[in-house]
Amino acid sequence: MSPALFNSYSLHNSGHYETVQKVLHSALEAADPMMAIRRKVVLEGDYLRIAEREYFLNEYNRVFLIGFGKAALSMTKAMMDILGDWVKGGIVISKLTGCPDEILLPETIRVLKGSHPVPDENSVYSTQALVEFVKETQPNDLVICLISGGGSALLTLPVEGVGLEDIRSLTNTLLACGAEIGEINTLRKHLDQVKGGGLAHMIFPAQLITLILSDVIGSPLDVIASGPTVADPTTYEDAIKILRKYRIEGQVPVRIMKVLQAGRQGRIDETVKPGEECLQYIQNMVVSSNVQAAKYTLEVARREGLNANLLTTFLHGEANQAGMFLGGIIRQIATSGQPMNPPACLVVGGETTVTLRGNGLGGRNMELALGAVYDIAGLEKSMLITLATDGEDGPTDAAGAVVTGQTLDRGRRAGLNPSLFLQNNDSYHYFERLNDLLKTGPTGTNVNDLAFLFVF
What we know:
Elements: H1 9-12, H2 17-30, H3 33-40, E1 41-44, E2 47-50, E3 53-56, E4 62-68, H4 72-83, E5 87-94, E6 109-113, H5 121-134, E7 141-147, H6 151-154, H7 164-177, H8 181-189, H9 198-203, E8 207-213, H10 236-245, H11 254-264, E9 283-288, H12 290-303, E10 307-315, H13 319-336, E11 344-350, H14 364-371, E12 382-388, E13 400-404, H15 407-413, H16 418-423, H17 427-433, E14 437-438, E15 449-455
Parallel strand pairs: 4-5, 4-7, 5-6, 7-8, 8-9, 10-11
Antiparallel strand pairs: 1-2, 2-3, 11-15, 12-13, 12-15, 13-14
């Protein structure tokens, strides 16, 4: 991980730089895709063991790898290190162009590009290539599918009657209105051929193993990457209800509404449902998640002499409101020693949302941090750090931000009003002026967001 993560004025002047640095490092180390795969997958001779399941590789004619998501390249590298010549080929869809120097994949693995968080033509082209690839598999083949955060956008193949621009428009509208990821993916599943179990249906009757790096609160398999290899419990009716909930039916492309209405009326087949034959022999397994990253971080914080605990990994809702809530907890610790005595580190995981009202630049982690500025103002030795584990907070080059008891005063001296920046959804430029953005660059993983509440 790049040291640029810690290029923050407040961190460098906190007096606890080394301790905080170790805690933040540990969060990304715990979510490392290669380590996650190696912890769960073992090859002993001709036997592949994944958790409680065992596969005798000589029983299969061919073994293939497919993958999509922000961690697809790293996960594929780890699997190739384990399986080597057992793998006869594969396709990986990544947000990156090409492979980093540390990830060397054989020529038999084709690396394609897609876009995130809104799919583009590359996403569709790459998905079409992957679909053509898996449709050539035979009943005695083994397909190992590697899924990570960003998979919903990178793996995109709209249903008949819906165009890419329709999907892009819908995605932008859902992101802007503050819809949560599960709601967004309910709509995606009913407008895409590979989501909602669609990919599993295409691969059947070949044997399928899916290894998942979860970027969704609670790790529900049908929500992660829109559940391409699992049953979908949602319906067309559910999708329409979400549009009504946010009162955005009038903003949705007409072609999308026609498909959803036809599906609700039974004129279009539903997504793959529990009990269908194509799901009978699939193994779906989460290899790492927000919970695992948070727990490992606690161990490191305790070794550093901090009273550390996990507050929740289910944080959601409006980012700025969540920031006020976490700021209040920091004040409680600093002024009363409750719920824990300093030196303290509370870890919070989850994924908040931002309802766009302005035209500024930011992301949910930076907006959460900005929401806490007033609540911790004036506190000594107190700090809130927010971190998108993929290194990309919204459409920015920052992963999050740092807030201390001095942030409000420093901002005011620079002529910055937190309330005005919140109204304009412009958290990026607020923290940029204070040199308190965290910039990691793409980390090659994604297990939701983490926030750290420090009181020394």
